[in-house]
Design a protein that fits this description.
Helix content is about 40%, strand content about 20%. It is α+β, with helices and mostly antiparallel strands. It has one domain. Helix 1 runs antiparallel to helix 2. The termini are far apart.
Length: about 120
């Protein structure tokens, strides 16, 4: 198994954790398994209202793909907050950091948040 395969397996485990902790739809997990990255759109003051595939937003998909290439990571869930901020949950290339990066019951997890105009 190569490094990307290990990252994808870890991403599936994390998506299952998010399902257990936050109730994300199981469709997001099955979509990820077919190569699609789930994108959740958030409208304040409410919480995320549903996930679509990142491929439905090519403008955002290209930004996330560049982020993955630059960081040598695997994105597994993206949250778009009012088209201002993009939060990318990802599996890093550093296996020793994975326990820290995983979602935890205290609702602490690692991600990267970017203002959309700054995400190249």
């Amino acid at each position: 198994m190569n490094n990307k395969d290990n990252q994808r397996e870890e991403a599936i485990n994390r998506l299952n954790m998010l399902h257990e902790l936050l109730g994300i739809d199981k469709t997001a997990i099955s979509d990820f398994k077919t190569g699609k990255i789930p994108l959740s759109i958030e409208f304040f003051p409410r919480s995320p209202i549903g996930a679509i595939s990142l491929s439905d937003r090519p403008d955002l998909e290209s930004k996330v793909k560049r982020f993955e290439e630059k960081q040598n990571c695997t994105a597994y869930y993206v949250l778009n907050s009012c088209n201002v901020f993009l939060t990318i949950l990802y599996v890093s290339n550093y296996t020793e950091d994975w326990n820290y990066e995983r979602p935890h019951p205290e609702q602490k997890w690692s991600g990267s948040t970017w203002m959309l105009p700054l995400l190249l």
